[in-house]
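note to self — DONT lose this again. spent like an hour looking for the file last time. sequence + predicted structure for the chain T wanted, 572 res
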Amino acid sequence: MRTGFPSLRFFSLTSPALFPFFCRFAPKKQALVKDAASINLAEQSFPAHRRKANAPRILWIKRCPSLSAMNDLLEFLRMTLCPLLLLILLPASLLARDLTDALESYIPSLMEDQNIQGIQVHVFRPGRTYTKSFGLADSETDQKLTDDTVFAVGALRGPLTAYALLGFMKEQGISPDHPLTLPDGSRVTAAQLLMMTAGLQSTHEGLVSPAVEEPLASVRKTLLEETLHTVLPAGEHYIYSPQGYQWLAQTTLDRPESGALVRQRILDTLSMPNSFFYAEREQRKATSVATGYEPRGKTPAPIPLPAVAFEAYLDLLTTASDYGIFLRALIQEANNPNSVAHYMLEEKWKSQLPGGRTAGFYYHKLCGPEGPGFYRILSQYPGFAAGAIFTRDGRGAVVLLNARQQMTLQQILDRILPDLYPECRPFLERMQPGYFPENVSPPMIEELEGYYRPRYMLTGSASTFAFLADTHLSLEDNAIRFSGFFETHPSIHLIPLAPDLFYARGKAGMDGWLLRVVRNRDGEVTGLQSDLMPYDRVNVMFSIGGIVGFSVLGLVLLAIALVWFFVRRRES
């Protein structure tokens, strides 16, 4: 259903849409009225249904003491204001039309190429929205995807929980910076838990397989007990820790689930009819729910929805348009400096770079250091991928897939970005693999080549396997590749902006991040600092490349030794 982005239509002479019409015909001096007869002629030139609406303007012309002066004024306005008005008024509609036309040709071809079953898109800007659904909700039954078909959106639940909890705390007179005590005795704040800077260990738990028979309440309790441990002092670094949302919700509300609060404060208040929680699925059997698919060869495999342990961060079924309602309301409310929304978007944790984390969203300069600040939330969930971006000026987009393919999600967002934000297009078109500014040359990259390990990607007991997250920086074909050891095609390239400053481009969640080289006092490279995560430079012998290489070499030597042993034994 297309609900917006209309082409320009003529309404009245007072409508801004008529400026192109006015600019085209006003300059003809012979058409300007000069006496009573020509005034009557001018009145006759308007259709009958237009004369009354334009009468005041013609009466003003009758009272004008100097028509030649008015001609000069109109000519001046035409030459100066009309081109400017055309630039201001036309591109917004034309770009919007270009974007929707582009999406309606681009997305189906992308779905066919990457075997995606269904995609739902919602794009918004002040006064206009566009919603479109492509493909199937379920390929086995050929159920068509509609704008009312709901998707599991995973981490997109987080901002709703943050908003509801902050609003509840505000009513109770509790500051987001009020200290709380974790079960291990660590002191943190609600703001740090919502920004994921409380120092909790990283975890990618939170979902429960449908095969697990243990009661969900018991599983949730066990997971919280296992993951509510701090590995860093609070407030120092970002670490992905959704368990913080779950614990804060339970502690603040004194009950195991936060769904009722989110429904009361957001879903019902904003009239989001196609949004609900896993526990409400039995009551929403009539609602179309998209089937999730895992990418397995040429035939994607359907996957049942898993149960959710960390419901405060992962439990939400919604549509792209419903989620857009929430984002637009959040943006509008944020104009009030005393509002919860303003706190959510204004208060940020940052590294040395402009990007960082807010209560619910990630914050990045997707169009470079001088561009607008973007709020973003991405989620990859069993059978689904979801993402949303927006800026404070009221522009944004929501994209939902019933396929766990974040690279495809990123491609669609990358296609939307330059048209929704035309001021970003020159920068994005320039930032392509192989680009180097005048003050950076390929030989300068050689000292940066090597392995880098994200410091807090895997923490706690999982830190033993931290080498699995090692990323290799290399210069290949004049482009700077930043990819995992097992990637045959790099998902991220680094584009230099200045010496030791880079912009990440690619088909992964890191797209749009800024990275700065970290050096010691002697000028030696010791790591990288990104918007969210520090990377430590790793000696190749202790990197995943070295570990895999030595492991393969060891296996080869073992095989040679075994062959030699059996040959000698046979000879003897």
